[in-house]
Known about the structure:
Layout: H1 2-17, E1 22-23, E2 28-36, E3 40-42, E4 60-67, E5 75-85, E6 94-104, E7 109-113, E8 129-131, E9 137-139, H2 143-156, E10 162-169, E11 185-192, E12 198-202, H3 211-214, E13 215-216, E14 222-227, E15 237-243, H4 251-255, E16 259-261, E17 268-269, E18 276-278, E19 292-303, E20 306-311, E21 315-319, H5 328-344, H6 346-354, E22 369-371, E23 374-376, H7 378-389
Helix pairs in contact: 5-6, 5-7
Amino acid sequence: MFNNIVKYIKFIFLFLFLINNFLFSNCRVIIAENFFNDDIIGYYLSAINVDTGESNLLLFDYQIDFIDCEELPENLYVDFNIQIDVPDYTSGQVSIIEGTFKLTNLTSSVSFRNTDLNSGTSTLPSGVQFLMNASDYHVGITGDEIEELSALILSLGRLPNGRYSFEFEVKNYNCPQFIDCDSAKLIKEVNIFLPEYLSLLTPGSSDLSNEIYNQIHTLYPVFQWNADYCSKCSNYSIRISEYHSDIHASLEDAINSYSILPSGSGFFDIGSQNNLFQYPVTGFEDLQRGNAYVWQVRRTFQTTYGIEEELSDIFIFNIKNNDSGINNDIELNEQNLNLIIQLVGQSKFDELFILESGLLYNYIPSSVIKLDGNEKTISYLLELIELLNNSKIEILEIDVE
Length: 401
């Protein structure tokens, strides 16, 4: 297994160190990136021939040009160091392999793609030769660690989530005399975090029979869900459909029928990676009291298989009629309190609202938010929470007047 890993590394080295410009004193070397697929976060083993490293999936396309060079170096030696940080499997970032490889028979223009490379590659289509012997590299992890990582990769069928760092440098000690190699260094980091879970929180539940828990009062509910980190996922999208017990045999049957958001079919892009969304006040069919609705959230990401989608579970909720005398403000107040918790944190919320010594103990806020005397809607709290979650704002202090 380790020999195969070394084979893959052999051709990965070549393209990663060449994805930046090397500036020389007497000549310039320009690396043109015709294509690089930064959006892929799922690298499955099935996309590569395990024995040879061959692949028909285009991941990168590069071109190297020597400009204003009176002569080309005979050989070019490149030092490399590959480090990984895989949560629960490495103690932070560790070096797995480092060494030196050689490029020779250089031409004024070198063009290549990953589909040109495999473990047996010694000559590129342009005629440039690539050489790395067993004595030219050093493995920085133990045999037991190699076996553990290999078992993880095989069990997942892909590269595990983590941070992968590739460092390449032409050192002065192995640099041709007429070339300035002081700036010939590149560090390329690739973050791979394939999502694993996406679960709904509120409103409603996945239990059809839980009528009390599934009931809400507002016609403009705030939908909330929980999900893990995804390094390159698209915006969340949501789908809402009406549920009819006499027509639909299941929640799945209802969500796949005609949707009211978006109108007709598909999913509605909420335009954000935030896990909150309020039903629009205008632009779509109004929710009706006494009716039941189902909803689901989706996010998509790109892998070597193509575009994959992750779907949440399906929740159902019922909008209660007003004949019970319950004021719609009750639900709006509850929503505001839940949003305040997310904005200031549970500890600060308890300090203000729950503890008897709290400045807002037993205080019931109205459904209207006021800031500097101006009225704000729930959507304003949603905007603040999204800015906070995206580290675009910071709460410095909280005062109660």
